[in-house]
Design brief:
The protein is an alpha+beta fold. The chain is 37% helix and 25% strand. The chain is built from 15 helices and 29 strands. Strands 2, 3, 4, 5, 12 and 13 form a six-stranded mixed sheet that branches. Strands 19-14-15-16-20-23 form a six-stranded mixed sheet, with helices on both faces. Strand 9 and strand 10 form a beta hairpin. Helix 6 crosses helix 7, helix 13 packs parallel to helix 15 and helix 14 runs antiparallel to helix 15. It binds adenosine monophosphate (AMP). The site of adenosine monophosphate (AMP) has 18 residues, from helix 6 and helix 7. Adenosine monophosphate (AMP) binds next to helix 6 and helix 7. Pfam families: HSP70. Belongs to the heat shock protein 70 family.
Length: 645
Amino acid sequence: MIKNATIRGARHSIQRALVPRRYKHNVIGIDLGTTNSAVAVVGSDNEPHVLENDEGKRTTPSVVVLEDNNHKTLVGLPAKRQALLNPRNTFFATKRLIGRKFEDPEVQRDIRNVPYKIVPDKQGDAALQTSAGRNISPSEIGGLILEKMREIASSQLKEQITEAVVTVPAYFNDSQRQATKNSGKLVGLNVLRVINEPTAAALAYGCDKTRKEGVVAVFDFGGGTFDVSILDIEDGVFEVRATNGNTHLGGEDFDIVLLHHILASVKNQTNGVDLSQDHLAVQRLREAAEQAKIELSTADKAEIKIPFVRDNVHVDMTITRDEFDAMTMPLIEKVIDPVKRCVRDAELKMKDIDEVLLVGGMTRMPKIRQVVAELFGKEPSTAVNPDEAVALGAAIQGAILSGQVKNVVLLDVTPLSLGIETYGGIFSPLIPRNSAVPIKKEQIFSTAVDGQTGVEIRVYQGERMLVKDNKLIGHFKLANIPQGPKGTPQIAVEFEIDADGIISVSASDKTPYPSDSPHYGKPNSVSIQVTEVGLSDSEVEKMIEESERNKNLDEEMRRYYEHASRADILVKDTEIALIQFGEQMEEAERNEVKAETDKIKRMVEDIRSGAKLHDPKLLTQALNEMQQKCMNAIKKIAEKQQKGV
Ligand code: AMP
């Protein structure tokens, strides 16, 4: 139990300049995409450049084939080419699974749509399984892709690359960021910084030859994720004002919609042939669906022709752009709310935005461009290449860290509020969402009951007033607090979010003990890095939506909960008094006080369980009566004692 006391020394530090350090080698920037990845570096001309792979391509498919029989690993285009022959061992779009639990509804949905096997590992995280039964984590797949990107850079730059800046969707939570950093560690690549994809894109936009200024919205729609960020660019300072998005919405979902459409029409045309369980056929149809989607960005219709998809089943159909737009409209509409929320969180109006940047392959779809133009009320800019901007921005960040690029500062934000549970199930946020990172905040709390020797620190992420509506992301106990009256220990809880968006929490006993106390000068503190659980994008979305919908109700409930907590404490005090003085009270008086405490306990229970919300006035009245009766009885005892009765 922990009770909010005074806020002391709350620190809010934005480390402005990123300390320029000289690295011996180039620091590369890697856009680790769901569908494709790219690598870039800032050259001696101080401009970022994308590095081409062995096939002369500027992006590399984020696809990995694992062959157990001959221990062969293929990454990139050769892996993508093998997909049809080896669907069970060809892993693609695994970024959608990174840092997620197997039970996550998004993971469960992916299981139905991919030809490879997704299984739970020992910790219940989503893992991949080869046809020979070997488990591999999405982080390891990410590591293999990072390694490939490093190889591309090493071969192009003719030097051994060891350090990189890697991008992640802005809406990645703590465990997804940790998992991405681990991907680098697994292959010996030192990930100096994890930065948000839209922020990287803005860096690329703002740092080109004609340096730009103003308020920029980055609309980033890629293969697996959708992000929107709003930044202020001024004098080389890139300050993210707000960010929002959906880490499970991307081009893959559009492919799946079209795939299901093709499967349904094959069924229709062939008197019920169902190809959905045929891995090879599904893989071919999926590729054809993606190809048709891309064609529809420039043509009014696309033909899908696949002879002998199975035995004598052939696919021969045409899809028009209008049909495709109509069937994917529910997906496109999912971008509207996050954009509106982001603008609101940035405390701006749509008209305040000077420039809208499009990033990610899906922004080539004309319907998406149209929706963006309508939403922002202006045509989006084509100043950045949507496929390369993220990698270029990561390279710039790499060059900032190595000291090569100067006078550019990046201030990013955290997407969700972070806080702890305080007495009575109340969420006390320490760091509100959209706070600039890195950030450190400390707050002093105290105990809620007498003699409490430990406090359980429960860390939550979310926007609701009561912890039960937020997400528990970690917990730990600070023990060995010396027994004392409630409210005396001073427990400092410190939250830290580093520049990668990774969270650590610590608690320490800062009570000023007298020098003769056995606790004097003995440090007592506990720290954790929050790695245990991640939030799925739908949970994040849901949390913010619900918090807005329930704002008034939450305020109301907070009032009830605070009254209930106060009542709880007063009842406990009265019960202690009954233990101390009960024997000396008259039986009728004792029973009366007991009846009052029981009545209040029932009221508190009603409030906590949601069974009945007693009017706080009635509760206060009952508390006053209880205290009055108890005091009267104790006074009588004192009078009797004085008279020597
Ligand atoms: P990214 O993650 O930025 O590489 O985006 C990849 C996604 O963009 C994939 O789902 C691609 O199918 C999709 N994509 C790429 N080019 C186009 C295009 N011209 N029209 C529509 N979608 C595209």
